[in-house]
Amino acid sequence: MLKNILCCLIIAVISAGCACPMSKKCCAMSKSECKMSASLLRHVVLFKFKEGTTPEKITEVEKAFASLPGKISEIKCFEWGTNVSIENRSEGFTHCFIVSFADAQGRGIYLDHPEHKAFGKVLGGSLDKVLVVDFWSKCE
Fold first, then answer.
1. Torsional sign, CA 139, 41, 57, 63
2. Cβ–Cβ < 8 Å for 98, 137
3. Burial class (CB in 10 A: 0-12, 13-18, 19+), 123
4. pTM, entire model
5. Which CATH architecture has domain 2-136?
6. Mind listing the pLDDT tens digit for each residue in 72-117?
């Protein structure tokens, strides 16, 4: 069941396109460049915040995550948004972030990057659950 929910979330977020704060360009690649590339490595992260997490803390987390593309050059595309599904099947996950890389090496650099580790400290104890799925996209 969780697989079905995750697939629906991924499809919905990717189909919806780029949801960027303050009209910043999310992706370093245009749609035509994406179609010309074999694929991108998509790193999908879902957050479920602990009960009682303040809106201010959630905003801090959103801003900190959204700042990573400006700090880590291996990030080719960054998209994020909050759950707007009417199906009531999110199991408490409210935030979806998609971080895209040209290759697995870029993802590895991102995961070990000091700025990514610093972002982890911003999360503190505010998350109840995190769900991460990586996949190779097929741009058609």
1. negative
2. no
3. middle
4. 0.77
5. 2-Layer Sandwich (3.30)
6. 999 999 999 999 999 999 999 999 999 999 999 999 999 999 999 9
DSSP 97: E
> By the 8 A CB rule, do 95 and 130 touch?
no
Give the start-to-end residue ranges of the domains of the chain.
2-136
Give Cα 77 to chain centroid, integer Å: 9
Rounded Cα distance between 31 and 15, Å, is 13
Query: Are the CB atoms for 140 and 34 separated by under 8 Å?
Result: no
- Alpha-carbon distances, residue 137 vs 34, 59, 101, 107, 134 (angstroms): 10, 29, 10, 14, 9
